[in-house]
């Protein structure tokens, strides 16, 4: 943002008298002697020397109304580093009080900031005297309720003296300026529009969009260079100044976009907590190298933890942040973040290096006993590297990459403070090209070519347990409707699988293609969608994998013991390096919609009943000769009732002769569309056995699946209860039970409770809350426990204090560190100066992940992932696999 005024602008315009008020009008006229209170017939334009008196509608030079925005660039300089990423309800506790209240005589904003160049200036006052000159060199004085208006800008004063000859002016008494972003008052303003020198005395300002306010004893400016003397800045109200930033002098250069503060002091209450004799900072959108706010925390593994970010503005399109970090129990780590952006590419490189980690040395003897795999132990010198970026090749295609490297499998465990990171077994790196497009003739298509690589992050496991790497993987999907009733498409992939341990898990290649045609018949109250597909999957296997599968088949069919070698001639009979599978898949999905109006408890509702039937048929194909690269059985639930395969991945296509019968109902409040009740019930009837299985998996026998039910009920607008339940009638047992409830307290508080139990797999309870004790004080907590493992997963206890402009949080955490059940303790303290920044780790992001609804708006969005690192994590963990 350049604060210097442009040289030219459009001229004055004629305005009419406002209704019901005084009829003062300032317009160009030939009769300069026509003066009377309530009407001024002529006034010169305040501008550069040599400008003649303008004729009506003639363009002219004028800078008077640009007077205050120019020196105001200095006044707002203390707020230049204010945090613009305001959080929800950021100013909720602020009273309706401004340091500079709105001016009663200011007009409503008209147009935008960009429109100012094209809008005329209207000048109004009670009287004009001292006028001399006819066509040039005007000198005069406008007095009594003087106002200048242009678009969204307003300038008011008691007295305005000006000289057209030398370009000088003086505004005395009750000087007021206002536009869309600020309000300013001063006792006196004087300036020279030719030399562009200005001076303001006793200034107070208010930023209307982000609550920043403050003042200065004096402001002076000469061209692009200026200074503030005795300046202040805060987002607090004047009557309740919790914090304030003061500076004895601030020098400003608007051409360079830079400010230099001298003798700056940050006060919290009346106590100075930080003194800086000299520092530089940006005053516009240009970035400037310097120190950022530090992060301070305490934990049982790191001890006292201090990080001091140092920002380096290397060029307009790339920068770097160095992050030296001191951990009293581990040593000194150097981290860095490098970012770049061009018209077509953008990316970010994050890295950290910790030489001679004291933690590795301290736990070396213990680790030798607990970690038998030598390669998985901590290295002495530790670090990580992550690069993520994208390249816009053309409007259709984009290249993307996300690459991760870690020095040892225990780095993630020691570096991250995320709960789920402790149970992740791998981090995935990926690079690829992705494209998509739509054409009326060709339909919609989506394609990609990529490669991914798995990195072990669980020290308790050997490398052979990792998923296969896909080097490379290509996919193509296409779909096109023909008229209203026919849709065709194809899903296809081609992949080369390889593994870090090729001896235990040799690889191979796979091509999978699935063309289909669907007939989507539907109306307002019904739908019938028959679909016919053909799936063909072909392989080219490495010799070692071919022999492994042949041996497994021979043992299974011939009963050869596992500890006995399969004879070579027998192995040759079962060897097939190019197995394939072709299988038709047909289905019919049909449903009806019934609705009626009903009234319940004094309110009108729309009640729906939605029966649905899904029939699936696919013949049996022997798939024992096929490998298993990336296929696992899907978790049984509501969505599984209507899928054409119970496996993910292409290595298995289940045979099926089954029918799903389901029913859903909803109760929708007509006044606002809110669902009072939604419930669903469904079951699969297997008309024959499903014989296709994965190794070690039992067949699905003829009969009925477990009943699947989901329900959500809004007891009122604040209390919601939902649950899921699965009952297996064959074994007369409960397969799944899940209960969730949420209660909203006031405008910000919330209590969440969840209980999950799946037979022989998990049993967990999760309680979290944000409870406001008063408008200023609140307590937060979480208790996340696994009954299956008899283990605490995470516990949080914290207290928050909030005010209009200052907030403080103290949070204690105990969380799972690794799959062995070891726990870590941490205490975090954050002090937030709203609108300026914060000191300490980002506790709000951590609480937001742990407590759904910590930000009320998150209840209506996708919850933040637990696997995404917060700003205070020193590593990125993309693509975690479990």
UniProtKB/TrEMBL annotation:
<comment type="similarity">
    <text>Belongs to the LptD family.</text>
</comment>
<protein>
    <recommendedName>
        <fullName>LPS-assembly protein LptD</fullName>
    </recommendedName>
</protein>
<dbReference type="GO" id="GO:1990351">
    <property type="term" value="C:transporter complex"/>
</dbReference>
<dbReference type="InterPro" id="IPR007543">
    <property type="entry name" value="LptD_C"/>
</dbReference>
<dbReference type="GO" id="GO:0015920">
    <property type="term" value="P:lipopolysaccharide transport"/>
</dbReference>
<keyword id="KW-0998">Cell outer membrane</keyword>
<dbReference type="Pfam" id="PF04453">
    <property type="entry name" value="LptD"/>
</dbReference>
<dbReference type="InterPro" id="IPR050218">
    <property type="entry name" value="LptD"/>
</dbReference>
<keyword id="KW-0472">Membrane</keyword>
<feature type="domain" description="LptD C-terminal">
    <location>
        <begin position="381"/>
        <end position="777"/>
    </location>
</feature>
<dbReference type="GO" id="GO:0009279">
    <property type="term" value="C:cell outer membrane"/>
</dbReference>
<dbReference type="InterPro" id="IPR020889">
    <property type="entry name" value="LipoPS_assembly_LptD"/>
</dbReference>
<comment type="subunit">
    <text>Component of the lipopolysaccharide transport and assembly complex. Interacts with LptE and LptA.</text>
</comment>
<keyword id="KW-0732">Signal</keyword>
<dbReference type="GO" id="GO:0043165">
    <property type="term" value="P:Gram-negative-bacterium-type cell outer membrane assembly"/>
</dbReference>
<comment type="function">
    <text>Together with LptE, is involved in the assembly of lipopolysaccharide (LPS) at the surface of the outer membrane.</text>
</comment>
